[in-house]
Give the backbone structure.
Amino acid sequence: MSSADKNLSVFNTTGLPDISNKKFAIVVAEWNSEVTEKLFEGAYQTLITYGASESNIERGNVPGSFELTLGAHWFAQREDIDAVIALGVVIQGETKHNDYINHAVAQGITNISIQNNKPVIFGVLTPNNMEQAIDRAGGAFGNKGDEAAMTAIKMVGLKDQVAGK
Ligand code: RBF
């Protein structure tokens, strides 16, 4: 299956950790908010479906995807937060800006997850057009928000496993 055909809401759920006491932050970019809201809904719902409690999920908005790194960093610095999910949509083709934004955010998210020693999940769609974005935000190819939340859950579990917890 090529990544273009992957359904982002279909995943292997064997051996998922107990996340009932884990705390998550979801950072949402306001650019292309009609799509990022769908990503948020998917991420939030997936966390709840797999055992997170509503009171353990916090949300923060940032103006655009470029600001996801810093917004996520502020949450990641908090000791009580176990994982951060960063959600955005940068449409390629509409602006050359996407190259700069996508690379900066991908690198930034990698850096802050290492610095803070906790999962910070890259949930940024980088489609060629709005139709492709909608297909991956609850449409034909599932929801990248679901996938980002599942990634957060699995990484939280792996961290505990490695720590022998
Ligand atoms: N932010 C996004 O999240 N998605 C975009 O597609 C996007 N396109 C942009 C295009 C241009 C020309 C500019 C100037 C900004 C764009 N941004 C986008 C906003 C960016 O992430 C950031 O919020 C601003 O650059 C901060 O001033």
